[in-house]
Amino acid sequence: MPITAQPVKGMYLLEEGRVFILQDRKLKTQGRQGGLIILKMKALDSGQIVTKTIKAGAKVEYIEPETKEVQFLYSDSEGSFFMDSETFETIMIPKDVIGSYVQFLKEGESVLVMLFDGKILSVKEQPSVSLKVIESSDAVRGNTSNSATKEIVLETGYKVHVPLFIKVGDVLKINTETGAYSGKA
């Protein structure tokens, strides 16, 4: 396994036989003693958030997972089902691995999964997705005192608040990190 002194957000770390994804990294200086790096990591096996402090310059072990293209089929109460683009076998990814990103996946869409030792670590998330509006209520007259919004339903079933001018059939850009409307596509 490679070792680095510069951990960056999104890097996969190997710690005590467990794989973590680095969610945040902060540098804290302490005068003459040198700096400390505070790592906020998420365990991919349990979803547990762990905070670890290391000295600046300390080496951490990281992995470079293999990527594989799969096609999203459907989702149920246990997890999400994907088809391997090469072998055509069905792969089930548990709910805790894919998380809330499942609400932005369209049927038949290709996504990348990250694998390590034959085990799926995570789904490579896009920063934004384009989804079509399938259900929208009319604007309520007089609802314009401050930022007037209405709730709409997108093609994946995800509900989001948008400005009043959005109508059925529009394709919208949705920020997958916050789940908020970010503009028309």
UniProtKB/TrEMBL annotation:
Domain Elongation factor P C-terminal stretches: 129-184
Q: Which Pfam families match?
A: EFP, EFP_N, Elong-fact-P_C
Extract the coiled-coil ranges from the record.
Answer: none
Asked whether the keyword Protein biosynthesis is assigned, the reply is yes
The UniProt record lists the Translation elongation factor P/YeiP central domain at: 67-121
User: Its GO CC terms?
Assistant: cytosol
Q: SMART domains recorded for this chain?
A: EFP (SM01185), Elong-fact-P_C (SM00841)
- The answer to keyword Protein biosynthesis applying to this record is yes
A single GO BP term for this record reads: peptide biosynthetic process
User: What are the protein's GO molecular function terms?
Assistant: translation elongation factor activity
Judging by the UniProt lineage, the source's domain of life is Bacteria
InterPro entries listed in its UniProt record? Elong-fact-P_C (IPR015365), NA-bd_OB-fold (IPR012340), Rib_uL2_dom2 (IPR014722), Transl_elong_fac_P/YeiP (IPR020599), Transl_elong_KOW-like (IPR013185), Transl_elong_P/YeiP_cen (IPR001059), Translation_prot_SH3-like_sf (IPR008991)
Which keywords, in A-to-Z order, does the entry hold?
Answer: Elongation factor, Protein biosynthesis
Q: Which family does it belong to?
A: Belongs to the elongation factor P family.
What is the protein name stated in its UniProt record? Answer: Elongation factor P
Which species is listed as the source? Candidatus Dojkabacteria bacterium
